[in-house]
Amino acid sequence: MMDNEVDVFYRELPKVELHAHLNGSVSCPTIEKLISRKPHLNIGHGMTAIGKGQRRTLDECFQVFKVIHQLVDTEEDILMVATDVIKEFAADGVKYLELRSTPREEKHTGLTKKSYIETVIKAIKQCKSEGVDIDVRFLVAIDRRNGTEVAMETVKLAEDFMLSSDGLVLGLDLSGDPTVGHGKDLLPALQKAKNCGLKLSLHLSEVPSQLEESDLLLDLPPDRIGHGTFLHPAMGGSQGIVDKVVKHNIPLELCLTSNVKGQTVARYSDHHFKHWYQMGHPSVICTDDKGVFSTDLSQEYQLAASTFDLSREAVWKLSHDAIDCIFAPDTVKQQLKQKWIYLKPQVFHYRETDSL
Question: Do the Cβ atoms of 255 and 224 come closer than 8 Å?
């Protein structure tokens, strides 16, 4: 009974998801649909990891990523994937979602980077027209592996869509293999993005060797930090860097399961969430890749609460305070805060009835 009651509380809790990669969020049922549509790819033999869920090794997680990239190469695929992902987040009680993805082109199917973004926007609008209870926005991702020139092109694309998408495209994500390249080469593109009004969410210090780069990129400064695993002195970072983050009041997007499964954090109790949370610094619980890492946002909140002994009121505050970290305008923040006020009595109702 208790487990069920706990599950209900976290599922009913209204939530904000600010760090979700589109392709990494694809669920097993969606992958199965994609496989059935593309028998010519002969995917099956190497797919043993798909049904393993929580038991996937890190290598198997990356294998799933590769398979998804093989399977998603047309506008039709992207539309289905984005629609499924949005509806799954909504079913998990997420009321506001910022999806992110690197626009891809596939010459053999005619997919262009522009049509990639257009299709994600189409999925967002489609879900809205169907009355799905979630406000979805999009961040265009720069993959650091692709270098300076592509980064500049991506900024131009993002700027065009920011001006034409009626507020659906809000900013840029910087991600990709953290061991490749250096942030200094991407500074001109990121500065250009900032100058034209795009919001910036940058993956920083995902690996220990990135401190110098993080220090440099924090001078922009970004509007949010993805992961920031090794920024804090307790994690091998520096007080100077923490001071910069605090000075600019830059929120952190923290992904517990992703870091533990990705083996950048040894165990949940070691997660850097505790350092930033104890400081009272804006910290938002996120999933990163809910499909690949077999999690959802309800589970991530539950993990944070059980690991760091957070009361339900503290969990509610964490969820509510995440609203201040979104990239949408203040009018949207106010609407979300009203929604939280409206939902609070019914979310906490479960505990009252079960304790009678």
Answer: no
Alpha carbons within 13 angstroms on the beta-carbon side of residue 68 total: 27
**Residue 261 to residue 251: CA distance in whole angstroms:** 23
Boundaries of CATH 3.20.20.140 in the chain?
2-26+72-354
Which tokens hold the place of 192?
């250009």
Calculate Rg over the CA atoms of the chain.
Answer: 20
Catalytic pick from 118, 206, 213, 300?
206
Please indicate whether residue 159 is annotated as part of the active site.
no
Which residue, among 187, 271, 276, 296, has the nearest Cα to 225 in the 3D structure? 276
Count Cα neighbours of 207 within 13 Å in the Cβ-side half-sphere.
10
Contact 291, 64 (CB under 8 A): yes
CATH 3.40.50.10540 fits 2-26+72-354, yes or no: no
Write out pLDDT tens, residues 166-199. 999 999 999 988 888 889 999 999 999 999 999 9
**Count of C-beta atoms within a 10 Å radius of residue 355:** 7
222-226, 280-284, 339-343, 350-354: segment of lowest average pLDDT: 350-354
Helix segments in 54-172, DSSP class H: 58-71, 75-91, 113-129, 147-164
Gap between the Cα atoms of 16 and 253, Å rounded: 11
The answer, yes or no, to whether residue 2 has pLDDT greater than 50, is no
Largest CA distance in the chain: 63
Give the C-alpha separation, 286 to 284, whole Å: 6
Residue with tokens 């609070």: 344
pLDDT value at position 87? 98
Sign for the CA dihedral angle at 317, 175, 187, 153 comes to negative
Determine if the peptide bond prior to 29 is cis (ω within 30°): no
The model's pTM: 0.94
DSSP E strand stretches across 195-325: 199-204, 224-227, 252-254, 283-285
- Cβ neighbours of residue 243 closer than 8 Å, sequence gap 6 or more: none
